[in-house]
Amino acid sequence: MTQAISDTHLAEYHKHGYTVVERFFSGDQLTRCRDEIEQLLAVSEPDERSHVEHTFPLGVASVMSRSFKGISAVDKDIHTDALNATFVDEHLLDFARQVIGVEHPLMVFGYLRAKYPGGAFDQPLHRDIDNTYVVPREDPRHHHLQAFVYWDDVTEELGPTTVVSEAAGKGAPPVLGRDRDHLSRFFGARPFDDNALRPDLYDAEHKVLVPAGSVLLYSMNTLHRGTHFAAPHGRRAVTHMAFRNPANNWQGIDGYGRRTFDPLMVRFLTGATPQQRTAIGFPSVDSDYWTAETLLGVAERYPEMDMSPYRTAPSPA
Ligand SMILES: O=C(O)CCC(=O)C(=O)O
Fold first, then answer.
1. What average pLDDT does range 215-226 have in this prediction?
2. Protein residue whose Cα sits closest to atom 7 of ligand 1
3. Whole-prediction pTM value?
4. Is the CB of 214 under 6 A from ligand 1?
5. Residue 266: inside a domain, yes or no?
6. Structural domain harbouring 48
7. Is residue 161 in contact with ligand 1, taking CB distance under 6 Å?
8. DSSP structure string for 69-101
């Protein structure tokens, strides 16, 4: 059983945009989850990118990675009940309730990803904004909480996640996604200038070096990245999940949202009417999502989109 996440962690989360709860999962629960992960990963082989991915609810049938070889030949029925329950752990849900301010936060995605030596895991600092059609909004009801649970001890050599305190990250472009090629494509004539990202952000990185069972809780707005996996052996298994207000259909990468940075999606959204956009989850013109700040951010994300319907909508109370 996990313990309630303390007020100190909550205060830290509000101050920095992230907090780390060490050994959140421990004892028998940790042992059971790690056993299930062993079984699950034993039926997959890391691919050329040296990672394996399974989607929630976990189990053999949910293997998603292209790396998975011979699924039809695997005669195994792996149930990962302990692990599946951790995605919606009651204390995690309590935390989500507090930061999002709704009674029933929605878990919008969950997956297990294991990294192995050989993959290109060093990422630029980014916000996970390909998990939304728009840009983050500073307001609890628009909050998007993300969580990584580390199931192996994470050392310097196992590609630790790094995070940057929100105060240090202020001023970085709101549309800073993880894929700079995407950004260049999407900015078209105005190629993305990575130097616009101040090098001091990298000096402000905090490495998440933790024992197995620990959880990193961070906001959609928090800059972070995966780093180089330097160890010649070993593995880093992590479950990833995110929570949001159930009313905010534009947040979360399930369904079409998985393709938010796909040029085809950008083209579709740009040419669609506001009603058509809302039919696939985009905020409606009368949504309280729209503020002067989000209008600017979304206009930056979709330079060709006519933003006037959103500008002229009655401003939310
Ligand atoms: O694996 C990690 O530590 C970070 C991964 C990440 O930030 C990403 O895939 O966007």
1. 94
2. 225
3. 0.87
4. no
5. no
6. 7-259
7. yes
8. --GGG-----B-HHHHHHHT-HHHHHHHHHHH-
